[in-house]
């Protein structure tokens, strides 16, 4: 009965205890017979080996050989290479600048990690019954997979593990033994933990996939709540919404903060690149010194105006000059008539900065206008560094101002036409 292959765990422990007891008994018997006279030592030793061989049964030796299966567990040391693989993936992302692709790579890594844990769980589901000798109530014996092909064994083990991890069932059959029950609980707990971590990481990565668009939606939502709180009229709300849509194009960046963190040279290069279309379209910049253009461009401020917005109001003191990157503006006289229109590449408002005179006409946006403004402080600071450019601009402005005044006086004396102003400017060339 002691040599019977019973699946009962209690009987197995009892058999192993008996094997150890009888084995120690044989060794103890051998050790008690060693200190004997030399004349009879050989006979006694032979007798001793006979007794020891009789006490050590062949069935017990075969059972002890199962321990050799544990040597296969040494192959698990290869799993330590996974850390090297993760390090290699991180290095590839840094070397090849896979910043946007890194989001998808992280999601892919999470999926691979979840499949790897499922693989480990499936292998554990099969390893434990194998070490027990495939008891009759184990899931392997119930499915009759002891002698099946390894691919079939692995497929059913992986299916059982993934069923536990995803909490969709127990596989083909529920656990029938205590060991299978504990393995099932372990697999369920690990699966639920991995599933929760996967959802959390995936949600975080998806949200960070387009952070600028998310910030834009948050900013628009905040503006909508503000408009509702202040009870602004519908037309004004519509104008504010359209302004945000045209200004930010669905993406919100704190450009001043981003550029402020860069070095001076790098910030200058970025601004010059962003304003390259403006420099190419404005003849005033095309014929000016490169350093002067760079100093002016780095002090420009981007502004957007909607159709109908008054950019410059008649009678105000000039504090800015403007460069038109895109759009059309109208020069409106005091009587409401349009004197002229300016478009891409034009600039206006510089004469008042040089002469400290008041605006004698208004400038109104005819379409959506993307402008760059230069304040009077920055305007004078740049011209102080380039006296030649200041003298050139002053002479040109004085000549244009004189001609405008002459045309105004001539028009008034003749009693016809609309007086010309310093704001009636077409694209200028330096």
UniProtKB/TrEMBL annotation:
GO terms for biological process: regulation of membrane depolarization; sodium ion transmembrane transport. SUPFAM superfamilies: cAMP-binding domain-like, Voltage-gated potassium channels. Pfam families: cNMP_binding, Ion_trans. It is a multi-pass membrane protein. InterPro entries: cNMP-bd_CS, cNMP-bd_dom, cNMP-bd_dom_sf, Ion_trans_dom, K/Na_HCN_channel, RmlC-like_jellyroll. It is found in: Membrane. GO terms for cellular component: HCN channel complex. Residues 407-430 are annotated as: Disordered. Keywords: Ion transport, Membrane, Transmembrane, Transmembrane helix, Transport. The chain crosses the membrane at residues 30-49, 107-128, 182-206. One of its GO terms (molecular function) is voltage-gated potassium channel activity. This is Cyclic nucleotide-binding domain-containing protein. It comes from Graphocephala atropunctata. Residues 284-400 form the Cyclic nucleotide-binding domain.
């Amino acid at each position: 009965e002691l040599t019977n292959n019973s699946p009962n765990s209690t009987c197995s422990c009892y058999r192993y205890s008996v094997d150890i007891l009888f084995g120690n008994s044989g060794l103890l018997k051998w050790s008690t017979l060693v200190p004997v006279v030399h004349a009879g030592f050989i006979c006694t030793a032979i007798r001793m080996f006979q007794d020891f061989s009789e006490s050590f049964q062949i069935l017990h030796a075969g059972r002890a050989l199962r321990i050799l299966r544990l040597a296969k567990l040494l192959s698990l040391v290869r799993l330590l290479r996974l850390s090297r693989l993760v390090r290699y993936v991180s290095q590839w992302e840094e070397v090849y600048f896979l910043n946007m692709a890194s989001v998808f790579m992280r999601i892919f890594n999470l999926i691979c990690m979840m499949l790897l844990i499922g693989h480990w769980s499936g292998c554990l589901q099969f390893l434990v019954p194998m070490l027990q000798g495939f008891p009759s109530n184990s899931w392997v014996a119930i499915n009759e997979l002891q002698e099946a092909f390894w691919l079939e064994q692995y497929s059913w083990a992986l299916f059982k593990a993934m069923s536990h991890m995803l909490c969709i069932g127990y596989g083909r059959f529920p656990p029938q033994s205590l060991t299978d029950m504990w393995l099932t609980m372990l697999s369920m707990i690990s699966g639920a933990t991995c599933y929760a971590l996967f959802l959390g990481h995936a949600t975080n990565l998806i949200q960070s996939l387009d952070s600028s668009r998310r910030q834009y939606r948050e900013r628009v939502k905040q503006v909508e709540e503000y408009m509702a709180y202040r009870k602004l009229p519908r037309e004004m709300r519509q104008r504010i919404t359209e302004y945000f849509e045209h200004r930010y194009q669905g993406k919100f960046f704190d450009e001043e903060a981003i550029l402020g963190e860069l070095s001076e040279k790098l910030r200058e290069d970025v601004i010059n690149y962003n304003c390259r279309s403006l420099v190419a379209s404005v003849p005033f910049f095309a014929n000016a010194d490169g350093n002067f253009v760079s100093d002016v461009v780095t002090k420009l401020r981007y502004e957007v105006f909607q159709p109908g917005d008054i950019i410059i109001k008649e009678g105000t003191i000039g504090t800015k000059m403007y460069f038109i990157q895109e759009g059309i503006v109208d020069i409106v006289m005091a009587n409401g008539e349009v004197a002229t229109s300016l478009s891409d590449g034009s600039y206006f408002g510089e004469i008042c900065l040089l002469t400290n005179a008041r605006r004698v006409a208004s400038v109104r946006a005819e379409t959506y206008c993307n402008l760059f403004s230069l304040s009077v402080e920055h305007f004078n600071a740049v011209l102080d560094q380039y006296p030649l450019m200041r003298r050139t601009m002053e002479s040109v402005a004085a000549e244009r101002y004189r001609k405008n005044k002459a045309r105004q006086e001539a028009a008034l004396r003749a009693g016809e036409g609309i007086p010309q102003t310093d704001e009636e400017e077409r694209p200028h060339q330096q």
